């Protein structure tokens, strides 16, 4: 188990005390796995008898496998209407203070002081459904981290630097690059693409969640913020390659 090092002393103490109070949520050894009520995990597929099942590729079988008391099974056709267990039990939390993907859980807090409350809320749901966490895969109180191959920070979702390092440190002079900007009421995002032989290849993507003050910006102010954010992130490209900016937001 890991605990973030950038918290204040008071918040760090609260997080540690929270984990101690909820130590029963973690599976410290195989004997701690009590099992889940079958009524919670049983699902029924609402299928039209005329629909022909879609076969799953062999390499995807392991991604839809599940464990029973006797052995491990997997689906061989696309499971229509199937929702994962975490989607079902955390339906009231998704998008508010939690994001999930299959069995990966991300608890998010807007303020460090509310992280303990959000964690306690998550632990209560896990305890209700007798679910356990693997302490070796848990990190609490971190301000940024990798989730599903991306970097999740206070700024939003960004590409993992380890995966795009070669592109970032070695921009190719003379490349034709295009920057696409997108604005919404609560976020700004952009994607940088390289054009070669008439085809465009994405090479950098950034999404930034706006704070309360930034949400009140006018469209032109949000566009200016997007350009400033872009200039800070793409400095190596700006210094070596001409970049055309494309957006559907009126600039006048």
From TrEMBL:
Transmembrane segments: none annotated. InterPro entries: DNA/RNA_pol_sf, Rev_trsase/Diguanyl_cyclase, RT_dom, RT_RNaseH_2, Viral_Replic_Matur_Polypro. Gene3D superfamilies: 3.10.20.370, 3.30.70.270. Signal peptide: none annotated. Residues 71-151 form the Reverse transcriptase domain. Residues 166-243 form the Reverse transcriptase/retrotransposon-derived protein RNase H-like domain. This is Reverse transcriptase domain-containing protein.
């Amino acid at each position: 188990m890991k605990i973030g090092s950038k918290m204040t002393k008071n918040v760090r103490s609260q997080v540690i005390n929270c984990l101690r109070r909820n130590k029963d949520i973690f599976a410290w050894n195989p004997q701690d796995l009590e099992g889940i009520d079958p009524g919670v995990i049983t699902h029924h597929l609402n299928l039209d008898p005329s629909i022909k099942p879609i076969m799953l590729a062999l390499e995807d079988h392991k991604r839809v496998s599940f464990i029973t008391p006797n052995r491990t099974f997997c689906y061989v056709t696309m499971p229509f209407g199937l929702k994962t267990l975490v989607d079902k039990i955390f339906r009231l939390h998704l998008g508010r203070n939690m994001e999930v993907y299959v069995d990966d859980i991300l608890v998010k807090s807007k303020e460090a002081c509310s992280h303990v409350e959000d964690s306690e809320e998550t632990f209560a749901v896990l305890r209700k459904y007798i679910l356990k966490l693997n302490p070796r895969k848990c990190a609490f109180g971190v301000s940024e981290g990798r989730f599903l191959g991306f970097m999740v920070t206070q700024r939003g979702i960004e590409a993992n630097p380890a995966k795009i390092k070669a592109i970032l440190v070695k921009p190719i002079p003379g490349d034709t690059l295009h920057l696409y900007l997108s604005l919404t009421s609560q976020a700004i995002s952009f994607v940088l693409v390289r054009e070669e032989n008439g085809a465009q290849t994405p090479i950098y993507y950034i999404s930034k969640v706006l704070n309360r003050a930034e949400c009140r910006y006018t469209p032109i102010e949000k566009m200016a913020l997007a350009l400033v954010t872009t200039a800070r992130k793409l400095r190596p490209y700006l210094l070596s390659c001409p970049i055309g900016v494309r957006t559907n937001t009126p600039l006048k």
